[in-house]
Amino acid sequence: MEIVVPELVRIKPQALQRIGKYLRTSDCNDIALFWGEGLQDLFRKTVIVSLESSGISIVHETVVDTTSIEEIFDTSLDIPSGASAVVAIGGGQVIDYCKYIAFILKKKLFTIPTIISNDSFCSPVASLYVKDKKRSISTHLPFSVVIDTDILQNAPRKYIYSGMGDLLCKTTAIYDWKLSYKKTGEYVNDFSVIIVRTALDAFLNYPVKDLENSDYVRTIASSLMMTGIAMEIAGTSRPASGSEHLISHAYDKLSSSPSLHGIQTGVAAYAVSAVQKETHNMVKESIVSCGFLQYVQENPLNREDLITAVRHAPSMKENFYTVLSQANAIEEVIEFILSDDLMREMAV
């Protein structure tokens, strides 16, 4: 099996100002440029100056406001065959859009996330609407990941806390994957597990967890990137997604006001860790030490919606064994949500 990982990775202050240089270094002289909504006004001048100084031409430019696969196909027909790279600047929507365009056109993909609310900026999956139904579509990892930590630090902090939650839940995801191996014989790729655990260690053991510190933000972004790469190596979402993701998906469908994906998975990870037991102390300590708990206490989920999501979680994905597949586990998680002091503050 051939595994292709990003070749050019830059996670540093003022990285956006160097995008032209990175493209030229990668022999990408003619690009299709895609923006998330509202970002042209903020960053286009910086990007154009960088591109022009490096002799990079824009052969197609679009603002993305959808993830409809039908519209992606239409757009792909408008991109000149001579374009050597697809460049996505923004959040998950534009990056997922461009993942699939680059995939079907076989072009190099440069992702430039302006927020890091989850690991999707460097994962082999795009979340797209197919005939009005949201589906996870297999793609490739980007050729390049360019992250400007100055931009991340100036974005609303909720996105970084969401990224933290999406990192924290890898602990429970790995537990569920190994549980599935014990119960069903599902294959576990040990190397991808090591990658995730190493990424988690870098984040959790960072000495001073201060979001004003660009190196700490770089560590969060790097760790999220590595969990995305772990999925490519494993050939499955298992290294990064377990029972907590099933709960989050159900919450998305059932709640009238869903939160950010990483916020939901972080809270759900704490809830299911109580049933997993061996992950509980680590998750509890982690949500406190990084500030995730304090953020969610100020921006809690809806308790009734969360309980309903727990009940519906196993139906979110067929043949996906997790701790919630075990007898009485769902009721135990619900009891924990209702009785635990921290849970009552994160879901009210």
What does it look like?
53% of the residues lie in helices and 14% in strands. With 348 residues, the chain is an alpha/beta fold. The chain folds into two domains: 8-154, Rossmann fold, CATH 3.40.50.1970; 157-346, Dehydroquinate synthase-like - alpha domain (Dehydroquinate synthase-like, alpha domain). The strands form two sheets. Strands 1-8-5-4-2-3 form a six-stranded parallel β-sheet, sandwiched between helices. Strands 6-7 form a two-stranded antiparallel sheet. The longest helix is centred in the middle third of the chain and has 21 residues, at 214-234. The chain is globular, with a radius of gyration of 20 Å. The mean pLDDT is 96.
Throw out a few tags for this protein:
Dehydroquinate synthase-like, alpha domain; 348 residues; two-stranded antiparallel sheet; 16 helices; Rossmann fold; 6-stranded parallel β-sheet
Rg measurement, Å: 20 Å
**What's the CATH class of the largest domain, please?**
Mainly Alpha
The CATH topology of the largest domain turns out to be Dehydroquinate synthase-like, alpha domain
Low-confidence parts lasting 5 or more residues at pLDDT below 50? none
CATH architecture heading of the largest domain? Up-down Bundle
What is the overall silhouette? globular
> How confident is the prediction overall: mean pLDDT?
96
- Number of helical regions: 16
Q: Structural class, judged by helices and strands?
A: alpha/beta
Q: What is the terminal separation in angstroms?
A: 47 Å
Give the topology, please.
Layout: E1 8-12, H1 19-25, E2 30-36, H2 40-53, E3 57-64, H3 69-78, E4 85-90, H4 92-105, E5 108-113, E6 125-130, E7 133-138, E8 144-148, H5 149-154, H6 157-168, H7 170-184, H8 190-204, H9 214-234, H10 243-254, H11 261-276, H12 280-289, H13 292-298, H14 303-312, H15 329-339, H16 341-346
Parallel strand pairs: 1-8, 2-3, 2-4, 4-5, 5-8
Antiparallel strand pairs: 6-7
